[in-house]
Protein: (S)-2-hydroxy-acid oxidase
Organism: Aegilops tauschii subsp. strangulata
Amino acid sequence: AASCNTLMVLSFSASCKIEEVASSCNAIRFYQLYVFKNRDISATLVRRAESHGFKAIVLTVDTPMLGRREADIRNKMVAPANANLEGLMPIDDLDTADGSKLEKYARDTLDPSLSWKDVEWLKSITSLPILLKGIVTAEDARKAVEAGAAGIIVSNHGARQLDYAPATISALE
Ligand SMILES: Cc1cc2nc3c(=O)[nH]c(=O)nc-3n(C[C@H](O)[C@H](O)[C@H](O)COP(=O)(O)O)c2cc1C
């Protein structure tokens, strides 16, 4: 069994399954979610996390589409297979187009229309607390509370999403 700290957030893009992590880790576990165009896939993952003892859903709200990652385009970036999507969609379906395969995958799967109504949708399918990851303004922090989020994670996704995103330390203030 992996030795774990007291709290972990399992990435949506993890190469280990929700079930494997649950059975090998005693930490309090949160599950990080992206909203797919195909809501059934996101809902299935939420249910799996819930039934395996994950205590909260971390909805990443700063990635309705992937930022333009020029190094990924140059290097024809391929992400490792997402173990949790096995059986839900093809996970090793790498096309031969030039450029970032990760960007193409994100474009095909992520819902670019992600908005506050999706927090409502998520609340309707789970009783777990929902944290919104990727909030960088006070205005959005207030909206998050109004939308029923249990908490926020102030983050700019490591500045990988929007060029000129504010540093999180200044957003925090
Ligand atoms: C290689 C890599 C993969 C990442 N994958 C995810 C991911 O699957 N989900 C997510 O919400 N954020 C992901 N992130 C962003 C990180 O969770 C985090 O936001 C970033 O490292 C910046 O840290 P901060 O949020 O504490 O400022 C990834 C970052 C890197 C560098």
The CA atoms of residues 9 and 34 lie 13 Å apart. Residues 11-13, 32, 60, 133, 155, 157-158, 168 surround flavin mononucleotide (CB under 6 Å). The chain has a mean pLDDT of 93. The domain at 7-67+84-91+110-172 is CATH 3.20.20.70 (TIM Barrel).
